[in-house]
Amino acid sequence: MIVLLVDLGWPSALMYALIGIAQRHTPDPDSCAARHVQCDIIGNPDFYGLGIRLGIYFQWLSALLAGPSAGEGLFVNYLVFALALYVTFFVFTFGTSCTFIAEVAIMLLISLGGIYIMLISRFYRNMTTSKARTRTGIGVSIAFDLLLFPTILYGSWFWCKMATGNVRPFAESPCGTTLFLFARVTPQRMRMASGFMAFVFVYTLLAVFFYQLSCAIFFLTSLHTVLLNRREVGASEPPDQISSRVPSVPGSQISIPALLRRVIQIGAQFDRAHAVFFRQSVVSYNCGAIALSVLGVELTLVWNSISGMYDIKSPGQLIPLIIGMGILGHVVWGKLTNDFESIRGRLMGRASEAVHHSAEHEGRTVDVEAGTSFQLPDSRWMHFPSHFTHTAPEPTS
């Protein structure tokens, strides 16, 4: 119910604001003239400067490298970061300063590219986990809906305006707007390419809406079942018997709070060959998404001659850069630590076998320090050291 209210309420208010207010807004000619010198556009580094872009790229790489234990935290952190980026759309659309079409296209690439990369990584972790089921709080779904659905709605509105040739409240680049949509799109082909992008965004918008609507219907059906079962359960029945009615989620069929607190997702089990192929496919998709998003952002900056985007001077750029570097460093350090523990465990296992074999032939007493290592479902390695004394018999001649 909460997700449905979010999907219907917040996007509806945004659509009213876009159609009723933004389309009547006209950029100030003096403001636009102050932001360009001939064909060069004076960029806005506080929104898409080098430090901000690098910080976002580092977070994308972190999602690609992270294991199951750190992946969910990265997803939540990026949602908060992307929600802050989403504020720039309101500044661009409803602000008094001049905003160029290329700037909006850059922010759409950054926002939607990052969401896609994080979603694919999260889907892979949920599908390949060895747990029988994965529980995700409903708050993550609400935060995701607050970000994804309005962003797609905004993109649909933007590309529909571009396809119709009505670019208000945005301004064209001084020497023509050139964008990257899987290839270089010149001003002469802008309306045709914008029509294709409008179709993609509207189709995605409808798909997301009906998916969330189906989830809401499923939730309401489950809630109806909860209410019916609560009436049928006798007041004298022990609580443990009530909870055991649904082994997967204790008490979910008769407890409304239990139903609200968690969503059950059944994890698919793969054999080794399928898991390797699935991992390779996810890595390929994410690498392609990262490459296209980075190319789209950087080439749009170059083709539209947006200046001041390749230095880091303001604190507004340093903070996202340091955050991105810290997240990437934490993920890389975790991967290196896990690999080191794995190699050390294997070497210690082989060393203990060699010492045991040597003791049998030499007939001496040795102290053996061995260990056993195994990998947990969240990709961490557990090591159990052991120490014992072995006395081998004297060899017989």
Automatic annotation (TrEMBL):
Keywords: Membrane, Signal, Transmembrane, Transmembrane helix. Residues 1-17 form the signal peptide. The chain crosses the membrane at residues 47-67, 74-94, 100-124, 136-159, 196-221, 282-306, 318-336. This is Uncharacterized protein. It comes from Byssothecium circinans.
